[in-house]
Design goal:
Layout (H helix, E strand, L loop, with lengths): L1 E2 L5 E2 L7 H5 L2 H42 L5 H43 L19 H6 L6
Antiparallel strand pairs: 1-2
Helix pairs in contact: 2-3
């Protein structure tokens, strides 16, 4: 079952017409774009996290290996670790958002697949093709490929 915007339950096990599915296409495309943006932001935050850790390691090793623990290297290490902590928090926040978006996308994908259509690709909804249906190969495991 799936709840649409009008709080009416739709039976997704039955046949949905393409016209009924068309209203979910903009939502699916927006969520897909949001997921792409989240992956991009997560990559940037993860890279910043790595750079912050590396900068902090260098700053601390230079400060306490070659100096008295006071100086620009110690400040570099502190700033790097502070940036690393901020990036870690942002990365955790992005991963929580990614999990929620993934749940919504899988729910909408299941809606399309239960109706006999592929999820939208470039804004188009297409029915399953009998010979190229990858899911049918895995649902009929007793039959040879």
């Amino acid at each position: 079952m799936f709840v649409n915007g009008d709080d009416k339950l739709l039976d997704t096990r039955g046949e949905l017409l393409p016209e009924e599915l068309e209203r979910f296409v903009p939502l699916y495309m927006r969520l897909d774009e949001d997921m792409t943006q989240l992956h991009r932001n997560g990559f940037y935050s993860g890279t910043s996290l790595f750079v912050g850790a590396f900068g902090g390691f260098l700053g601390f090793s230079f400060a306490f290996g070659y100096g008295d623990g006071h100086g620009p290297n110690a400040y570099l290490a502190g700033a790097s670790f502070m940036g690393m902590a901020i990036c870690l928090g942002r990365w955790i926040y992005l991963m929580i958002q990614r999990r929620e978006l993934g749940r919504e996308l899988s729910r909408l994908s299941k809606l399309f697949m239960d109706a006999g259509y592929y999820p939208p690709y470039k804004g188009k909804v297409e029915p399953y093709k009998a010979n190229s249906d990858w899911l049918a190969r895995y649902t009929n495991l007793n039959k040879p490929f």
